[in-house]
Amino acid sequence: MAAPRSLNIDVERLMRGDQAKKDVNSPSEKKPKLERFPFSRSELVAFFCVFLVFVTGLYCIYLTMPSSVYDKLKLPRSISDLRTLKDHLITYAEDYPAQFILGYCSTYIFMQTFMIPGTIFMSLLAGALFGVIRGLFLVVFNATAGACSCYFLSKLIGRPLVIWLWPEKLRFFQAEIAKRREKLLNYMLFLRVTPTLPNLFINLASPIVDVPFHVFFSATLIGLLPAAYITVRAGLALGDLKSVKDLYDFKTLFVLFLIGSLIILPTVLKRKRTYE
């Protein structure tokens, strides 16, 4: 396994710029601003090529839909939007299940890969249209596939962006990963089950701090199950749901952290025995 690469040089290089010419005691030196765009031209070309492939595939899939369905498609941004979308799609999903699932999966993975907000509405939609079992399978499959796609995209061109956006959080994540190399799967499962770190950050930062793909994949596939179950089950009662915030109340967060604590407990006990 490759040793973790140091991020300090890259972070300092991005943050230095013109600030190195200023006085060390100046306020701007104490709080450097990241003004340089993080991507090189070749990285931008690679990003847009991947993006174009996804968009072309989605467009070809949507062309197979009846115009009555296609004209009313839009990404939901609220629970009311989601109810309207469900009413438009329910007949199409029953009459053309294979085409609908292909379009649903492609859209979900596209959104997850390119960090487009709204996948939680897609998860609720799966529960509303397919029930708990099939909906849970769809959500976990798509969330895992999208996260893996995001992982490889970040491995290709994401390093400058993550360092540019979250330099301190990335240093913290790298230090935590380095401390837990022996039980890395447990730690990654803990992060996936609990909302300790955003899933977006985990997807983008994992290849940069050398989290092996098999660990990332396993932790994502298993760790997303509890939250996915909660979301899909809530989709069954879409009419009673007022806001996305209702999904994660104190009781739900307590259960997720309890599960996460049980997952990471073997690591804590092993470390305690080592110190003794």
From TrEMBL:
UniProt-listed InterPro entries: TM41A/B, VTT_dom
Pfam family, one: VTT_dom
Transmembrane segments: 44-65, 114-137, 215-238, 250-269
Biological processes per GO annotation: autophagosome assembly
UniProtKB keywords: Membrane, Transmembrane, Transmembrane helix
Alphabetized PANTHER family for the sequence: PROTEIN, PUTATIVE, EXPRESSED-RELATED, PTHR43220
Protein name: VTT domain-containing protein
